[in-house]
Amino acid sequence: MLKELKILKSHGSQYVKNLRAQPVSPIFMGRPVISGFLSCEEREMLCKLCPVKAIHCESGSLDLGKCIFCRECSFALPGKIKFTNDYRIAVNRREDLIVHPDSENPLRLDETHIRREIRRVFRGTLKLRQVSAGGDNSCEMELAATGNVNFDFGRHGVEFVASPRHADGIVITGPGSENMSEALQICYDAIPEPKIIILAGTDAISGGLFTGSPALKRKFIEDHNIDLYVPGNPCHPLTFINGVMDLLGIA
Ligand code: SF4
Questions:
Q1: Is 235 close to ligand 1, i.e. is its CB under 6 Å away?
Q2: Whose Cα sits closest to atom 6 in ligand 1?
Q3: Is the CB–ligand 1 distance for residue 99 below 6 Å?
Q4: pLDDT of residue 1
């Protein structure tokens, strides 16, 4: 018994008290900051270098919905592109995932774009069904972590459930494989109204490295209104948690 208590003491307290302000490792890659002094040659070089075409050739802006966080751009121009460890990068408008040069603005949800019924119905309890549409289990593991004893997202009533019939929304991970296309629709149809859709991870938002693959069929994602985009490759549990808290209006 004494041995077990010693082990527990050595672990310390791992419970995240404040989900809004939990410090993360300085090497974590979150919101990028791009210099406003990129030359034409540098923009062109970055545009060619980025494996997923996340950097715009003319403006030098960086699309977090496409970025796979490989860090190649910041290795190439360490003084001009850096990734901060700001994990609060979830937004509710796709265009807000584009980070422009010389901008240090935090990424936040557009309050005017949040459907009124979301806060009215789901604040205090939100059950989500997670569907992996060709995912590699990385985002899926991070989402599962949101419910562990450290993050304990259940403290705000947000939990993942096994059946869409018990859910209020669908969280999609993976690039959207053709084989899962119909399954996404079936799952969505089984969720009662009102219902929300969240895309978690770069693959779900844009297809990521698999963009253009004939194995993808992203019609479901393209045809539906998306309530929350959670970037990351994979997305960090705190990015997902803070995005959902913003969506629900939890302080
Ligand atoms: S970190 Fe993102 S933007 Fe930079 S090269 Fe990699 S994928 Fe492209």
A1: no
A2: 70
A3: no
A4: 86
Atom number in ligand 1 closest to CA 68: 7
> What DSSP designation does 91 have?
B
The DSSP secondary structure of 100-119, one letter per residue, reads PTT--PPP---GGGS-HHHH
Ligand 1 centroid – CA 80 distance (Å): 13
User: pLDDT digit string (tens) for 202-229?
Assistant: 999 999 999 999 999 999 999 999 999 9
Q: In this structure, which residue's CA is closest to atom 2 in ligand 1?
A: 67
Tokens 């450290």, located at residue = 150
* Predicted pLDDT at 14: 84
Predicted confidence (pLDDT) per residue in 22-48, tens digit: 999 999 999 999 999 999 999 999 999
Residues 6+ apart with CB under 8 A from 238: 16, 19, 22, 24, 87, 88, 151
Average pLDDT, rounded, for the chain: 96
CA–CA separation, 171 and 131 (whole Å) = 6
Q: Kindly state if the Cβ of 52 falls inside 6 Å of ligand 1.
A: yes
Give DSSP secondary structure letters for 122-178: HTT-EEEEEEESS--SHHHHHHHHTTSTTT-GGGGTEEE-S-GGG-SEEEEESS-BH
Kindly give the parts of the chain with pLDDT less than 70: none
- Is the CB of 29 within 6 Å of ligand 1? no
Which is the closest atom of ligand 1 to the Cα of 49?
Answer: 5
